[in-house]
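Name: Glycosyltransferase family 39 protein
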Amino acid sequence: MQNLQRGFRIKALALFFLAFLFFAWGTGNTSLWDIDEPIYAQSLKDQIAADNLVVPTYNDRLMPDKPALNYWLMWSGVRLLGMNSWGLRIGSALVGALLVFYLIIALRRLYGESIALLSGLLTATALHSTIIFRSATPDPLLILLVTIALLSYLRGYIYPEIRTREFHWTYAAMALATLDKGPIGFLLPGLIIVLFLLLRQQLPLLWKEGRLTTGIPLFLMIMLPWYLAVGIETHWNWDRLFIFEQNIGRFDDSMQGHRGPWFYYLISTFLGMLPWSIFLPQVLHDLWLKRRHFLQNQAIPLFLLLWAGTWIAFFTLSATKLPNYVWEAYPPLFILLAFWFDKIRAQSKLPQTWGLALSFSTLFLIGLALSIFAAWILPLREPHFPGMVEIGFPYMLAAVFAMLLIWQKHWPAAWASLGVGSIVLSGLLVFVILPPINALKPSRAMGQEIAAIQGKHPYHLASWDWFQPSFLFYAGRGDMPIRHLSSLAELRTVLGENPLYLVCPSRDVSAVEAAIPQDYRTQNLMTAYEIYSHENISLLQIKNLPHTKGTRPDPLVSDPVKTE
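Structure predicted for Glycosyltransferase family 39 protein:
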């Protein structure tokens, strides 16, 4: 027995390290992707420069978008690897590997070793995992913490002898999730738990066996100190903006144009869970056939379905929609998929041939559509993109090989071929497709040009009619702000003794030069095509001429000047 447990732990640790290598694989090869990554990265730079990791700020103002926990994770990576893509993203790669490890460990008792290991593998190789666990955003932490909170509750519910420990893990995980992304970290997991108990007609269990007298103090001890500290330091402005703008406001009205139809998350979830989501209809169909026994005899699948369904339904009602918002619904679906796969492997539940043929045909057609879109349709919109016809090949080949293997009843080999296809696709994205696309983001090159010219000497930044947060991150220094001009007449108010680096569309360079006073010289340092705006962007250096130097004060170090 001890040898079996030791063997399982070795497998779990091996998958943890492999998942970490997979998510960290090429993570620092590309510059930060606008909008979110450089905003959080620049906010961290501001906090480090101010020697204050309590109050998030961005561009000389409060940054109420997210609480502090993810900043602390990124800060740890930066301390280890530097203020760059590697340092900022490595924490997310570690969190992704921890998610895989936790799923394996937590599910062993609920479902057995093979399903636990398979759940971890499905999670690691899904399409959206390749994206989310390589990004410097708060989402990876929330995914891990919500998964710990809900699976720990389920384990405590099923096994009374470990209830106290598991329920306390639930409270602690919800507290940390609240430190990472706000009230959603405890409201949605709490709602899922309450709905589960209501359907089981066991709601009194919440206050009789819920460990509320110790769990709530534990939750508050972990969560409350930072919220109090940031409130006191900002006279409660940060807390007010965070609650009313970033939480209630996002749910009530779309922000940054992130809208979508009611079926948005049905499509995004299916695509994000590829290649494994092609079997979800069959899994859900099998569960539907057992619906009469769910409430009393199928506690675990009922909890998993409630988890996924409630999370997706909640954000379907939200006005702001992004694929990342429902990643927390993926783990229970991966668990149900792993259980279905294991039944097939054990030949206790053989799927119908036509259903498998439909699933693999769907994956093949998705791969074909990706190749057609990347090779012929996308170039019409963005001719600067590299040829990417190969992007769909891994799914097409994986679908063909898996179908041939299943025809010969080689079930594990068929699932393995899909996993290999997913890994190959990730390799294509990271090492073949993204590097040339990364070259179409000039912000890092512009920042390097400014650093080479200025060294340690002071300078200022401004933008006209174009801005991406990555420009401020790469071009700025510490907590340096950037001035966004609302009219070219404002140029006179931002010019001073120190050089000004202004970024604008190339079509506006002549207009900018015409607005500059005669005692200043303009030099176009760089012009490059930019992927987000689909136009050429120029970096201008505006300097005081030598014979007039010292005749004008520096507006960013002297008293502020009112804009015209």
